[in-house]
Amino acid sequence: MTSSANECILEWAREIQALAQTGYEYARDEYQRERYTRLMEIAADMISAKTGFERAPIVKAFRSQLGYATPKVDVRAAVFRDGKLLLVREIADGGWTMPGGWADVGDAPSEAAEREVLEEAGFQVRAAGVIGIYDANRTGPPELFHAFKIVFRCELTGGEARPSIETSEVAFFARDEIPAALSGERTKLRHIEDAFAHLAQPGRPTVFD
User: Fold this and answer.
1) Tens digit of each residue's pLDDT (9 = 90 or more) over 65-102
2) Which of 91, 169, 191, 201 has the fewest CB atoms found within 10 Å of its own CB?
3) Distance between CA atoms of 189 and 23, rounded to whole angstroms?
């Protein structure tokens, strides 16, 4: 298998899963549902073979998704103090990221971003604008599904630095101090560059894919 094909396996598996999930929702009989269930299992086999993760939890995650398949939503908060950007270090992989995570059902997106900052970094913030809306394909369990990422510009209103059960460090970084080890798809250099550009030009239009 070529390297380019190998890199596409997760993308193909996600698409197969999404088609199978939607097909299962609109299946007319048990025969069709069995076929779509098998497609979900094939997608899980592809991801397991690619990543080395156990197959059973992947199949369980796929089968738990109901209805028409749509992207999930990840929110991130760009919080500045004295021209420096707030980042937290993820315990899961040791990389740095802007505070954030999956939006919960019932959340307003801005409220989800504000809550994540408090939970992961100990600071109270107020969402004041949207820096960017990005296509955010994830790379491995539990991020098995296609996602959109919304990065909010948030104003610091209170609190103090406090790590959490998910984060081991909390710190502010100038543009030339950003750690090289970022946390996977949670925060990419592109998101950080857009955040600093927005800081320098507050009226800058929202970036979007």
Assistant:
1) 889 988 889 999 999 999 999 999 999 999 999 999 99
2) 201
3) 37
Looking at the DSSP assignment, which residues form a beta bridge with residue 85? 80, 173
Shared domain check, 92 and 35: no
Q: 145 and 58: one domain?
A: no
Q: What's the domain range around 112?
A: 72-208
Supply 201's token pair: 């030009």
Cα distances (Å, whole numbers) of residue 114 to 1, 99, 150, 197? 44, 9, 12, 21
Q: Kindly state whether residues 42 and 132 are assigned to the same domain.
A: no
Q: What is the pLDDT of residues 112-130, one digit of tens each?
A: 999 999 999 999 999 999 9
Longest dimension (CA), the chain: 62
Cα separation of 88 and 101, whole Å? 12
Structural domain count of the chain = 2
